Amino acid sequence: MPEPKVHELFEPVTGSWQYVVADPTSSSAVIIDPVLNYDAAKGVISTQSADELIKIVTDKGYKVEMILETHIHADHITAASYIQATLAKDQDYKPLVGIGGRIRNTQKMFGERYGIAASEYENVFDRMWEDDEAFSIGSLTVRAIHLPGHTPDHMGYKIGGNVFVGDSIFHVDIGSARADFPGGSAEAVYNSGRKLLALPDETKVWVGHDYPPDGRRAPVPFVTVKQHREENKHLKDGTHEAEFVETRRKRDATLAAPRLIHPSLQMNIRGGRLPAPTASGLRMVHLPLQVPDSPW
């Protein structure tokens, strides 16, 4: 099987890596974890980052067959629906949107939490992958790998000598993703990390985010399994599960909620589709209030 051509694009506001992955023999391609720009202070959604991905696709003459999500992101809004609609309109084909099959439970949980009708999030994903399910993009074979821990539904995608891991592990000097979201598990993050680091040494591990410490380096989209096994801050060889779990839980206890968690979850369970407009024409997301005990 030929190795894919990978185009990476960094979105600096949310620290997100996005990917266009193409079959060099057929020009079929997938987009992985695309991002919509969102100004929280103004409540304004824009599409600069997604349009850059579309420009790569157009300039290279790729046909995007699928848009793949690794999970329901809590720190940025997916551009999957926007890209799907734009390519369907401008290039006369409609890519499918795929995600792990366990997403149904996540949609139901957050739909109930935010008061979103099931009709707004059911059937928004065209493909829901089972664990270890394989599918084709041109002459490339993609294998969906269940990587729970950050979220219970989290999927990675192995394509040739590459694996796109979303938020399961990060660059070696950051280590691993938080495990304190609903359904998260530090033990599962550890086991998913060991699953990834059991892949061949030369496998490239492409991450969903990077947060360069104090700006001391540029964002890095991948390193090899060998580098992770030797250098990963949390998961390098010799790290025992109990040690990892203690470190991860202590770290998670210091973390604030992601700044964009509420709009992200509400949009992303819909696959990035906009909420239905109100009678006044506004599209709304809900913001829960934390209030003290009081008589009013």
UniProtKB/TrEMBL annotation:
CDD domains: POD-like_MBL-fold (cd07724). One of its GO terms (molecular function) is sulfur dioxygenase activity. The keyword Metal-binding applies. Coiled coil: none annotated. SUPFAM superfamilies: Metallo-hydrolase/oxidoreductase. Residues 15-209 form the Metallo-beta-lactamase domain. SMART domains: Lactamase_B. GO terms for biological process: glutathione metabolic process; hydrogen sulfide metabolic process. The keyword Iron does not apply. InterPro entries: Metallo-B-lactamas, Mito_Persulfide_Diox, POD-like_MBL-fold, RibonucZ/Hydroxyglut_hydro. Keywords: Metal-binding. This is Beta-lactamase-like protein. The lineage of its organism: Eukaryota, Fungi, Dikarya, Ascomycota, Pezizomycotina.
